[in-house]
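Hey, I'm writing a tutorial for new members on how sequence and structure tokens pair up, and I'd like a real worked example in the thread rather than a made-up one. If someone can provide the structure for the chain below, I'll link this post from the tutorial.
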Amino acid sequence: MSQKHHDTDPKKPAKTHSNSTAQFPEDVELLADVLGAMMRQVTAEWVNTDISTAQIKVLLALHFAGARSVSQLALALSIGAPTASHLVERVVQAGLAVRIESTSDRRVTHVHLTERGHDMARRMSGLNQKHLIAQWMSQLSDRQRAALKSSLRTLVAAAQAAPIDGIESINSPNNKQSHPLNN
């Protein structure tokens, strides 16, 4: 009886020939349940906010890509400059951002998030869910947390290596020059 050698390196994603959910139905369902619970929290943040979805997009763009001019925001969000200017004005009036004149060109004004703006962006993007995750993880034994950590590291590596269909990340190292928010 011969034994087949299996690659069990936890740092290497398992090689599969299909990315069908039928291959790992229970695993996919369990992870979807966890992500769904997190999304319910984020959705509650979105529903209970007093700013528009378009304004939230401005917040998220500035939070993840840093200060930008109104024209850069317009390009990044695929909207006209007047619309971007109006959205920025509403975000500034709400105390979530400030306009700062460029030191190199007085004709250019950059929009910067305030600490309150960054806080709202973190809530709207789900980045403040660490406390919820910590609460869930506190219910696991040390052994379960170690196993989960190992598995999550492997899953994160696979997720970071996978392309996102139809979307290029504004922070992608390969996209620093081509995306308006990275200029």
